[in-house]
């Protein structure tokens, strides 16, 4: 799948411009500082751009079909089996008055998924079947995020758009969620866009990256190369921040030894 020429403007102001994403060569990291346009790019791909904005560009699907991003009816028809969002704040994306099992069963039925079951989906994302009987308010943050992932997988999407899904989790839970994403997407041949500020998490999951700044692509390529030799100041700042964190960790260990 590809995204070609993605752009978005609101009140004559350009918010995104000329963004191309190649999504068929393994998980893709979408990096950049806050306000760079990462989440907006995902919303435009889903046909959920801000009201009164204009969107341009197109999706090229696996079978070669093309969908214009300003054709909201066509893009809406792709949501679910075509593209699915794993949101940042999972707890607010769950229906607060329905049990987890009911929400999973509904998506399995709507998307005619006969290969999975509510119980098997929870096992695949690493939580116990007991959660099927719980309401969202009875879940921890990590459990809610994994249930949200199970709901996304229930749709059997061709492309999963993960919008900083681990940002509210602790370090251990972040690594576990990223590993779960990698395993499940590979097993289902699901393409993945992973939005994050965390280069360590991106490197754990993705082989390629696109760096955005003020709505434009400023650097793209193999993630290892971008980390080893960042060319753009934004990429350099992301790498420097990660290295400072590594250096702080080393300093703490040396101080305690």
Describe this structure in words.
The protein has 257 residues and is an alpha/beta fold. The chain has a single domain, classed as P-loop containing nucleotide triphosphate hydrolases (Rossmann fold), CATH 3.40.50.300. The chain is 41% helix and 23% strand. The chain is built from ten helices and ten strands. The protein has a six-stranded mixed sheet, with helices on both faces. The longest helix has 24 residues. The N and C termini lie far apart (50 Å).
Beta strand %: 15-25%
CATH class type: Alpha Beta
Number of continuous helical runs: 10
- Measured on Cα atoms, how large is the radius of gyration? 19 Å
How would you state the average pLDDT, rounded? Answer: 89
Strand line-up in the sheet with most strands? 6-7-8-3-9-10
Total domains: 1
SS-derived structural category: alpha/beta
Oligomer: single chain
- The CATH superfamily name is P-loop containing nucleotide triphosphate hydrolases
Key descriptive features of the protein:
Rossmann fold, six-stranded mixed β-sheet, 257 residues, 41% helix, alpha/beta, globular
Provide a brief overview of the structure.
The protein has helices at residues 38-45, 72-78, 90-93, 100-110, 118-124, 141-154, 171-188, 199-205, 223-228, 233-256, and strands at residues 2-10, 13-22, 28-31, 54-60, 66-68, 83-86, 159-163, 191-195, 208-213, 216-222. With 257 residues, the protein is of the alpha/beta class.
């Amino acid at each position: 799948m590809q995204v070609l020429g993605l752009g978005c403007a609101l009140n004559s102001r350009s918010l995104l411009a000329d963004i191309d994403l190649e999504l068929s060569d393994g998980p893709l990291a979408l990096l950049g500082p806050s306000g760079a346009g990462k989440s907006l790019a995902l919303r435009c791909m889903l046909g959920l751009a801000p009201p009164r904005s204009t969107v341009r560009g197109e999706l090229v699907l696996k079978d070669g079909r093309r969908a214009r991003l300003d054709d909201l009816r066509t893009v809406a028809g792709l949501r679910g089996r075509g593209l699915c969002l794993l949101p940042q704040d999972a707890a607010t994306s769950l229906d607060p008055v329905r049990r987890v099992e009911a929400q999973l069963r509904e998506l399995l039925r709507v998307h005619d998924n006969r290969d999975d079951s509510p119980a098997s989906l929870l096992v695949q994302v690493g939580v116990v079947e007991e959660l099927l009987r719980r309401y969202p308010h009875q879940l921890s943050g990590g459990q809610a995020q994994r249930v949200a992932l199970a709901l996304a997988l229930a749709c059997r999407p061709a492309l999963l758009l993960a919008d900083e899904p681990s940002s509210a989790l602790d370090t251990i839970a972040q690594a576990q969620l990223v590993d779960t994403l990698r395993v499940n997407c590979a097993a289902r041949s699901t393409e993945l866009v992973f939005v994050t500020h965390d280069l360590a998490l991106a490197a754990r999951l993705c082989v390629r990256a696109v760096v955005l700044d003020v709505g434009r692509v400023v650097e793209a390529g193999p993630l290892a190369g971008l980390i080893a030799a960042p060319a753009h100041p934004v990429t350099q700042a992301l790498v420097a921040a990660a290295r400072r964190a590594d250096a702080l960790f080393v300093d703490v260990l040396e101080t305690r030894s």
